[in-house]
Give the backbone structure.
Amino acid sequence: MKLILFGASGATGHELVKQALEKGYQVTGFVRDPVKMKISHSKLELIVGDVANDHLVGDAINGKDAVFSTLGAASPFKYDQSVVIGISNIVNAMMKSGVNRLIYMSAINVKESRKQAGLLIRVLAPLLLRLETAGHEAREKIIRASPLQWTLVRSAGLTNGMRTGIYRSGTDISANGIVATISRADVADFMMSQLNNDQYIRKMPLVMY
């Protein structure tokens, strides 16, 4: 299976790349800065570019079996329109090339699932995380309007903990305390598991401990 990962050089992107390679997949990482990619492997190809470049995105997606995205603004206090444009480019390229499966990492702080996130996120999302949240909501809107077989993974607060494989997922789960968390490695584990699972196609599962 041939996969392409947008945002591959980020912290969660690294985990996705590592786990995809462990499973023997052929992986293409789309990155803005190749210096940030710390993984080297015979089955890993890097494409360096900006997701706002529709031609480059289209060429990168052509021939792939599935698309992953961990794209986000560089800062949680920033709304990055170029990333929103990038998601639009990805969706359009997938429809044009006939690649249907898209697994996108969103966040639990979007308005629709915020009530399930715990008190801390419910307070911070409309204040300190307002711009980051708006970015995720704009990108989700583009994906949800498409005919693709998408899954929007609404992650709890991310940590750098170990991969445990033990976490909760579902559309109706809620934080057990003041804040919900999960390691990037376990988010990647859940995202990878969606390749061979149609339970959450065109759905928005949450994932948390």
In short: The CA atoms of residues 114 and 122 lie 6 Å apart. The two ends are 30 Å apart (CA to CA).
